[in-house]
Specification:
Layout lengths: L7 H6 L20 H9 L3 H5 L2 H15 L3 E3 L6 H5 L4 E4 L3 E4 L16 H4 L1 H13 L5 E7 L1 H10 L7 H9 L1 H25 L3 E6 L7 H22 L5 E5 L6 H8 L3 E3 L6 H8 L4 E6 L1 H6 L1 H14 L5 E5 L9 H12 L5
Parallel strand pairs: 1-4, 4-5, 5-6, 6-7, 7-8, 8-9
Antiparallel strand pairs: 2-3
Helix pairs in contact: 4-7, 8-9, 8-10, 9-10, 10-11, 11-12, 15-16
């Protein structure tokens, strides 16, 4: 990691104390911003946005210009990887991502892990562009979906309520499912490493559906692939911090932090602040975990929550963030209020 950087986010990731908590927001470049909507309305395809370096760089920079976050996070999507592996993907308004679902090991032949990075060259060009656009205090975060979460979309064919298809495969044919997870683990590590080579200064692994697995399978399909990816990245780029986000992991957050080797852990809104500080803070930098609805509501509820979080996390390395992504209905004025609250000295 980079110590004593001009970038507060990198300093906290190196476990250094900073006068104010660095901050960024998951899904900070998105539909709540009028400037994002203006670009999105002009371009019919979300996939086209992700694969256009000029447009994706512009969308990455929009929230940083408006609010001055301490980090920009690459504008892309976790499903770019299965698209690059050859799985049919489209984004439908009102429905979300739709993929040609994998029914089992026999469908793995439809995927091609060769030259994945060449197919993702536009994403890497976006990283290079954004790195050249950032000021001296703003870090650049690259990201990917963690293998388990990406696998859920690939097998379910999109979002799911009960995950019965992917669980049935993972539970009923673990060796066959392991072939898919092996492909995703290797490709994810390569994608993140390529982002670092292109200019990303930290990376985050989004495991949005980690919390749907019981402990035995959480260890097998969340912890072990994540640990392999972290080890792979650290071998190539030992100073690059890795942030893990195993949403809804509950008490398994502790095993995740202990056994994956991540430098920082993103917390969802249900994680008690006291538990996070006492059980996780000594092992990883903490990130999170404001309920996105509090940002949506704003006012005194938002202010009280920020004050409580700053007080609770004061003694441990901490990055302010939400416990999940910014909601599209969030007023831009509320994010401006959040920026003001985080720039103020902590109340005595």
């Amino acid at each position: 990691m980079t110590a004593s950087s001009t970038k507060p986010l990198l300093n906290v990731l190196a476990r250094e104390k900073t006068p104010l908590p660095p901050w960024w927001l998951m899904r900070q470049a998105g539909r709540y911003l009028p400037e994002y909507r203006a670009v999105r309305n002009r371009i019919g395809s979300f996939l086209e946005l992700c694969l256009s370096p000029v447009l994706a760089a512009e969308l990455t920079m929009q929230p940083v210009r408006r609010y001055g976050m301490d980090a920009a996070i690459l504008f892309s999507d976790i499903l770019i990887l299965p698209y690059a592996l050859g799985q049919a993907l489209e984004y439908r308004d009102g429905t979300g991502p739709v993929l040609e679902a994998l029914a089992g090991p026999g469908d793995l032949g439809r995927l091609n892990a060769v030259d994945v990075l060449s197919r993702l060259a536009p994403v890497l060009e976006t990283v290079e562009r954004v790195r050249g656009m950032l000021g001296p205090r703003t870090a650049l975060i690259g990201f990917a979906g963690a293998p388990w979460t990406v696998a859920t979309y690939m097998v379910e064919g999109g979002t799911s309520r009960d995950f019965h298809r992917v669980k049935s495969w993972a539970y009923g044919d673990p060796l066959g499912f392991a072939r898919l997870m092996e492909m995703l683990t290797e490709a994810t590590g390569e994608l993140l490493a390529a982002q670092v080579a292109a200019g990303a200064e930290a990376v985050q692994l989004f495991d949005s559906w980690a919390g749907v697995l019981p402990e035995t399978y959480f260890v097998r399909w969340v912890i072990r692939p994540t640990a392999r990816i972290v080890a792979f990245l650290k071998d190539r780029y030992p100073r690059c911090p890795v942030i893990g986000f195993p949403r809804a992991a509950g008490v398994l957050y502790e095993r995740y932090v202990t056994e994956t080797g991540v430098d920082a852990v993103g917390l969802d809104p249900t994680v008690p602040l006291g538990f996070a500080v006492a059980r996780l803070g000594g092992r990883a930098v903490l990130q999170g975990n404001l309920d996105p609805v509090l940002l949506l509501v704003g006012g005194s509820s938002l202010e009280a929550a920020v004050v409580e979080m700053r007080h609770s996390f004061a003694a441990t390395p901490w990055i302010f963030n939400l416990g999940h992504g910014v909601l599209p209905e969030t007023p831009v004025e509320n994010v401006a209020t959040l920026a003001r609250l985080l720039a103020a000295p902590e109340p005595g």
